[in-house]
Amino acid sequence: MASVTSLGIGLGRVDLVGEGLGDEVVAGRFAMIEAVGRPDAVLMRPYSYFLGAGDTVSFLIKDVGKGTHALLSARAGDEVAILGPLGSTFPPPTPTTWIVAGGVGAAPFGLLGSSARLKTLYGSRNEHETSFGRVLAEEGLDVQFATDDGSTGFAGTVTALLHHSLANGARRPDQLFACGPTPMLAEVARIAVAHEIACYVSLEARMGCGFGVCRGCAHLDALGGWRCICEDGPVYDARLMFAA
């Protein structure tokens, strides 16, 4: 069964309840989800787990198409099909791990909120789209905001905030965890190499199956080979996926 909490225009948290749904849910893993009985959304799509324990799992969703719109329009008790957990995970965080997230890339990190107040850099276009960063703060992460238009927090991109933080005396992290648009991840990877910091990224991609059959999420790695993000990802050592 589904329930939806609005987090702003076109943004929401979807909670699903079912026996054992939260079993084996770890930061970085994802589920394939479909709103059942909606003729405008006939394929499952991937969503990173935001929270998961016992019989309840939660997802952060932005309305960007038919599938996401159908989920955000679900009424209390509506049936939803879910396949998961799938995919690889982030390594265990340390007290000096930093998180870098952009937009819906906030989703994988809610599960890390209870482990420590990890420094988290969250980027969005403007103040109206900071909701996902704010729910990370509610889960216990130490969130610093960057907005492209400067309406909240640091004025600029989240990667500019990362560069600024590293260049201005902040305690050096021993690893970076990142999720967001691919160009953002490539820049985070470049910064990590320049500062000799281990970096793990969760790649976003459209998927048709979630387990390597449709090959719809194939992505070129740093050596020019193809990898299915659903099959051996979505979390990778950044050096495997982005050339230095």
3D structure, described in words:
This protein is an alpha/beta fold and 244 residues long. The chain has two domains: 2-86, Elongation Factor Tu (Ef-tu), domain 3, CATH 2.40.30.10; 97-241, Rossmann fold. The chain contains six helices and 16 strands. It has helices at 66-72, 131-138, 158-167, 182-194, 229-232, 238-241, and strands spanning 2-8, 11-17, 30-35, 45-48, 51-53, 56-62, 80-86, 97-102, 119-124, 142-147, 154-155, 175-179, 198-202, 218-220, 226-228, 235-237. The longest helix is centred in the last third of the chain and has 13 residues, at 182-194. The radius of gyration is 17 Å and the shape is globular. It starts with a strand and ends with a helix. The mean pLDDT is 92.
Quick recap of the structure?
With 244 residues, this protein is of the alpha/beta class. The protein contains 6 helices and 16 strands. It has a 7-stranded mixed β-sheet with strand order 11-10-9-8-12-13-16. It has a 4-stranded antiparallel β-sheet with strand order 1-2-6-5.
What string, H for helix and E for strand, traces the elements in order?
A: EEEEEEHEEEHEEHEHEEEHEH
Distance between the amino and carboxyl termini:
45 Å
Do you know the CATH topology of the largest domain? Rossmann fold
Mean pLDDT: 92
Helix content: 10-25%
User: Quick one: biggest sheet?
Assistant: 7 strands, mixed
The shape is globular
What is the count of DSSP helices, taking H or I runs of 4+ residues?
A: 6
Number of domains: 2
CATH class descriptor of the largest domain = Alpha Beta
Strand fraction equals 25-35%
Query: Architecture of the largest domain in CATH?
Result: 3-Layer(aba) Sandwich
Strand order of the largest sheet: 11-10-9-8-12-13-16
Low-confidence stretches: none
Write down the Rg.
17 Å
Number of strands: 16
